[in-house]
Amino acid sequence: MAGTPPRLEIRNIVRRFGGRNVVDGVSLQVQPGQVTCLLGPSGCGKSTTLRIIAGVDMQNSGEIYVDGKLVCDTIHRVPPEGRGIGLMFQDFALFPHLTIAQNVAFGLKGSAAQKRARVEELLSRVGLLHYAEEHPHQLSGGEQQRVALARALAPRPRIMLMDEPFSGLDNRLRDDIRDETLAVLKEEGTAVLLVTHEPDEAMRMADEIALMRDGRIVQQGAPYNIYNTPVDRAAAAFFSDIN
Ligand code: ADP
Ligand code: MG
User: Fold this and answer.
1) Which residues form the ABC transporter domain (predicted)?
2) Is the shortest distance between the CB of 215 and ligand 1 below 6 Å?
3) Ligand 1: does its nearest atom lie under 6 Å from the Cβ of 226?
4) Does the pTM of the predicted model rise above 0.90?
């Protein structure tokens, strides 16, 4: 019996800039309904890896599969919009002149009734249905972030790529928003690859952590395994300032 393929799999991704392998043979899997964290210090190649998966940058070698289907190697290349991948970055800018509902509906396909139903479903899920007819500037940073999450999820991406999505937020808000975001992602059943340089964020949100350093995955596993059994001194030191 053939097993279900991972939702996302990348194999041996290499990306060179100026003769240096910024991403140096990264392989990863993300399972349906799970959050995988790509965790590592600034400059280790996390964002580059994510951009390649999204299709806005191109690897020098290696392959990307979605649900077992090749979407990109050095010969075949499915364009970004054909990959079933949603994106959320730190700079989540909403369209200021559109209402919250219009922001979430933006780019959705289907009839007006279908779009309205999906927008209402998502705005309820993030607890902001009462703001549907307001404009972004009337919302707090945390609320805008939740709208951005609703917008990214609206077209039902099979995979959500998130690059340090919480780093622009106030410390006080961050834990709450992390928890809320995680709950929404789990309800939607979206597979998530979350990039962060913060170990506590990975410990809080991940089902699986891939620890990255100098363009390579140095350790991968369940959060408590990585925390309790770091692969080397550098990995131990990286986790040591979690409180
Ligand atoms: P991270 O997201 O882990 O902080 P990045 O993937 O942004 O790391 O960057 C990894 C390394 O690649 C850095 O040294 C960065 O300067 C370099 N880099 C990223 N993009 C480019 C580019 N377009 N041209 C040259 N170097 C780049
Ligand atoms: Mg980055």
Assistant:
1) 8-239
2) no
3) no
4) yes
